[in-house]
Specification:
alpha+beta, 6-stranded antiparallel sheet, 4-stranded antiparallel sheet, signal
């Protein structure tokens, strides 16, 4: 009986050690978001005065592309810009571009990314100097199912 007890005790210890170990949550990078409703990307800016003054003095646009294919664009003249990365869009790497169309004063901008009906998840900031024009390839978002990984460029 004594010989049988030793292997049984060893087996019991192995079982208890394995069953009491912590469950490991998947490691999620800091810039990976989870949303079953997609993401909203908003671009707002200021030139130092009111919102209406900023809209009058600067025209910025916002673009969402998948590779070389345009997916969404917001090119409003007199309102801030917003595009949606919808949950039904296919998985892949999406690019966010900010277009400086007309910048008559130094302009500070915020690029806000959040889930619908949610608070801001991430905020990126930058600026354009007076007279600057062109597009800035600002951010990449890798979509994999309900997971969105933000890649700061």
């Amino acid at each position: 009986m004594k010989r049988f007890l030793h292997p049984l005790t060893l087996l019991l210890l192995i079982f208890l050690t394995a069953s009491c170990s912590r469950d490991k949550d998947p490691v999620v990078p800091a810039y990976t978001l989870s949303s079953h409703q997609g993401l909203i990307i908003q671009l707002e800016w200021t030139t130092g005065g009111s919102a209406s003054q900023a809209l009058y003095e600067t025209d910025l646009d916002l673009y969402l592309d998948l590779g070389s294919t345009p997916i969404a664009a917001s090119e409003s003249l007199r309102q801030f810009e917003e595009v949606h990365l919808r949950d039904v869009y296919r998985d892949g790497t999406y690019d966010i571009y900010i277009g400086a169309i007309d910048v008559s004063r130094t302009t500070d901008y915020e690029l806000n990314i959040f889930a619908p009906n949610g608070s801001t998840i991430h905020r990126f900031t930058g600026y354009f100097n007076r007279g600057e024009q062109g597009e800035v390839h600002y951010l990449r978002i890798r979509k994999q199912g309900p997971y969105y990984t933000l890649i700061d460029l």
